[in-house]
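In line with agreed milestones, the collection of sequences with tokenised folds has grown. A representative record is reproduced below.
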Amino acid sequence: MKSSSESGFTLVEIAVVVLIIGILMGGAVSMLTPYLQMAKRSTTQTKLENISQSLAFYAQNYGRLPCPTNPNSNDTSNPPFGAPRNSGTNGTVVGNVCDSGTLTTDDYIGIVPFRALGLTEDQVKDSYGRFITYAVSPVLTKYNPDPNSSPPPGTPADVHDQCRTAIWINSQVTANIAVKKSEVCCANRATTTEPDIRIMSARTGGTSLFSGRKYDGVPPSNSYGSPLTLQSGTPGVDTRFVAFALVSHGPDGDGAFMGRSANRMPSSIATAATTEESGNADTTDLDLVSRPLSTTENAGYFDDILAWRTNDQLISAFGNDSCARPVMNQ
């Protein structure tokens, strides 16, 4: 027979042990939380980079970028969810512009068109499980068919003189050596009212982090012409502009498209109307905000993660080309 001194733990003793284990685990979790958040941001940045590479590949093949996807997955009208806007019943028509005749900025902001890029729906969601917002410059969504394609040959859109010099035109002056490349490097902005994307340091009163073509002054109309027509001289004009921007709306998801409608996630911050990240949650313009992480819940709150590329970066994305010449090693 066992003595009373050999009896098991009392309920009080067990409760104390459980409490101590809980405290230790709670401390461990609190210590791990910042590292888990860093891992999620890193994973999201990797996803943004992968999408950027896919867009660059698309641009090099088509001479343009795809339109965004309609964020409403419940919209059963064509095109299917995940296909570019105005891409037809099956979502396979490459040549249509994003708008339906009236240029509005909300036609150029939506969800990444994962079908056109050969990606899955999960690949265009951030590590927080929300859709990544895709904004594209209207300049690069125009259909510019390759005049050398057959059948049938098309009529290419005008490009800047920078891509119509002697090194771009063949010796017979009958073709541009790199039509699709010229349409990306020297894309024509048809009107002075056509919006370009701006990456801003702040929602209000900020400065542009990249000064593109539109904001350095509009080139004269005769600076553009058919890519098949030789332009004498060497126009020393900067034809770069922001081609696209991708936005993960961060841990809070404020402003992210919900995916079942055109609505966005509401803000959880009382001062949402004036927060810096609210500039990435509207379709009134193509100005997007990129700034350091700030989790203080005031007007400076910002947890969005951005990635953006200029048109020349689309060409140099794989490290073996540039807009300086139509063919490398030329």
